[in-house]
Design goal:
16 helices, binds glutamic acid, 15 strands, five-stranded mixed beta sheet, single chain, alpha/beta, eight-stranded mixed beta sheet, 376 residues, Archaeosine Trna-guanine Transglycosylase, Chain: A, domain 4, Carbamate kinase, 2 domains
Length: 376
């Protein structure tokens, strides 16, 4: 089964070696045009696409006439700054030719780890997708220090796929998938078309194949695959070098697919139900309990009491009036705002708070039924 057939949201990671010609340091424009045409075709099928694109450092080092070879950290950061603007310009220009708006987002590790920033990044990306734009993401190289880096865009792609609940992550790189050994050094190396579980054996096959331009080798792709498959995304690794790289996957170009081990929704709910330390309690009425068990969101109207001090994005417990835990979820308002809109209708929120926040107190995507789910 082809991942493109079933996926609704696809994250595509584009490696530096594909975007930038290794010999000249120039953007491979014809290739990028073909990639954007493929993305446009996928969007016409009603699917959503997010790009995670490298290439800033490779493009910028040429613009700044930096020497060949390894760069110092400050030099790569300077190169990223000069290259990113060129990269973004190329995407904006080429996508405009497809009648698509490209939107740049630069992320640091903390943006996908710290809950409030994470929620903001997620909301912005969802808004862009709803508006039909194609987000083009890169690491914010100029502010990231060695300790707080994703390190490579394979991992950034996996974090984005997990944060957004994508069904598929495609890593376009300079290898056409996973082999039993490094195919460049071992003539007996066999290609593996499908991986259903990332075992130690699979990990051992990934002996760091690192190209000249990007940071990630096969080992970093396996780490990315582990993160993304556990978050519900199938991961495709393929050689993206020739034009129309996405169309080619659909036509059967050689690739490895790592199968997701869960669904994005289940992964997110498990994360909310299990990992977080609740900072507050929302006590809800019977009508709201019923709505929640039917899979609906928690609206301010159903809230009877707000306890604890929590910020927007913090995890809270949801209890019924007898004190039984019903659910856990991420609050869309902080404790004092929650208190002010408790029991009120959604249309009144703006007048009470003076700003227009979310319609729900906890959106159903951010809500995991706990006790009731365990009972059934
Ligand atoms: N963020 C880096 C860049 O745009 C690339 C990182 C990577 O190659 O994985 O140049």
């Amino acid at each position: 089964m082809n991942v493109f057939d079933t996926a609704k949201l696809i994250v595509i990671k584009v490696g530096s070696a594909l975007l930038v010609d290794g010999a000249t340091g120039e953007l491979r424009r014809a290739w990028l045009e073909s990639l954007c045409a493929d993305v446009a075709a996928i969007k016409r099928e009603g699917k959503q696409v997010i790009l995670v694109s490298s290439g800033a450092i490779a493009l910028g080092r040429r613009a700044l006439k930096l020497k060949a070879g390894a760069l110092r950290l400050e030099e790569s950061q300077a190169a990223a700054a000069a290259g990113q603007v060129r990269l973004a310009e190329a995407y904006a220009d080429i996508f405009a030719g497809e009648n698509i708006v490209a939107a740049q987002i630069l992320l640091t590790l903390g943006d996908t780890e710290e809950r409030r920033r994470y929620l903001n990044a997620r909301a912005t990306l969802n808004t862009l997708l709803d508006l039909g734009a194609v987000p083009v993401i890169n690491e914010n190289d100029t502010v990231a220090t060695a300790e707080i880096r994703f390190g490579d865009n394979d991992r950034l792609g996996a974090r984005v796929a997990s944060m957004m609940g994508a069904d598929a992550l495609v890593l376009l790189s300079d290898v056409d998938g996973l082999y039993t050994a490094d195919p460049r050094g071992d003539a007996n190396a066999k290609h593996i078309p499908e991986v259903t579980a990332i075992t130690p054996e699979i990990e051992a096959m990934a002996t760091g194949s690192v190209s000249g331009l990007g940071r990630g080798g096969m080992a970093s792709k396996i780490i990315a695959a582990r993160i993304a498959t556990a978050a519900g995304a199938d991961v495709v690794i393929t050689k993206g070098e020739s034009i129309h790289p996405l169309a080619k996957i659909r036509e059967g170009a050689r690739h490895t697919v790592f199968r997701a081990t869960t669904t994005p929704a289940a992964a997110r709910k498990r994360w909310i139900a299990g990992v977080l330390k609740p900072e507050g309690i929302l006590v809800i009425d019977e009508g709201a309990v019923r709505a929640l068990t039917e899979g609906k969101s928690l609206l301010p109207a159903g809230i009877r009491q707000v306890d604890g001090r929590f910020e927007r994005g913090d995890a809270v417990l949801v209890k019924d009036r007898e004190g039984r835990e019903i659910a856990r979820g991420l609050a869309a308002y902080n404790a004092s705002d929650a208190e002010r809109i408790a029991g009120k209708r959604t249309v009144e929120i703006e007048a009470i708070l003076g700003y227009r926040g979310r319609d729900e107190m906890i959106h159903r995507d951010d809500l995991a039924l706990t006790v009731l789910e365990n009972k059934s």
